[in-house]
Write a structure and sequence with these properties.
The chain has 233 residues and is an all-alpha fold. The protein contains 12 helices and no strands.
């Protein structure tokens, strides 16, 4: 809903300011308001914001509890075939995957991402599959499975590019480069990095661009090119 989008935006504004307590209070008030208005699905949707804020606070165990409770509540709703219910379930699964990944539970994270991706695909929301695909690739890389990671990341990058999301396409390119690096494919890693850096600079995403430069330096060092690494930094 439009109201849900506004709530999510306000949640993130408070969180990005570091006002996590205010964000959680706002979410609690919004949830009560939706419940009192009989808008059960909107009330449950507020828990997505709660999960994000709790993860920002490093309270991952609490986040997992909220996520599992949200999925259980969705399972109790009438009208399981309702696309809005299915979409919220996919969103919750993607968030829960990120939480599991934060605590190193890679298998649970991968299962959650796969379910989220399948949920979006069943709804015909191909563009939305990009986020769990990218997250799955990042998780696979952390789990030491770079070849599988590369497949997921490249599929996600293709979708981000198709949908015009240049920021996420560039961010994923940085992770693709790290996967190539783990595989010893240093030329391929460098080939992915430079266009990503240019795009991020054009978009003003300077923090992300700096991460790309750091990755570039690491790849040059792995290739034994210390001079190039120093220039990249």
């Amino acid at each position: 809903t439009d109201e849900g989008s506004v709530q999510a935006a306000v949640d993130r504004i408070y969180a990005e300011r570091g006002e996590f307590g205010v964000a959680l209070d706002f979410i609690d008030r919004a949830r009560r308001g939706w419940s009192q208005a009989g808008q059960q699905l909107a009330a449950l949707r507020s828990d997505l914001g709660r999960m994000q804020v709790l993860d920002d606070l490093g309270r991952h165990a609490e986040t997992a509890v909220v996520g599992r409770a949200l999925l259980d509540a969705l399972d109790q709703l009438p009208g399981q075939a309702d696309p809005a219910v299915q979409q919220l379930r996919a969103m919750a699964l993607n968030n829960l995957g990120a939480t599991y990944s934060q605590v190193g539970d890679h298998e649970s994270a991968l299962a959650a991402y796969a379910q989220a991706e399948a949920g979006y695909r069943a709804l015909g929301l191909r563009a939305d599959t990009a986020q769990p695909l990218a997250n799955r690739g990042i998780c696979l890389l952390a789990a030491g499975r770079p070849r599988e990671s590369l497949q997921a990341l490249e599929a996600a990058a293709d979708i981000f590019t198709e949908t015009g999301d240049r920021l996420w396409a560039a961010k994923v390119a940085g992770v693709i480069a790290r996967a190539h690096q783990q595989l010893g494919e240093l030329v391929d890693a460098l080939r992915a990095l430079e266009p990503a850096r240019v795009t991020l600079d054009e978009l003003g995403a300077h923090a992300e661009s700096a991460r790309i430069q750091l990755t570039t330096a690491e790849v040059y060092l792995a290739a034994g090119l210390a001079g190039e690494a120093a220039l990249a930094e």
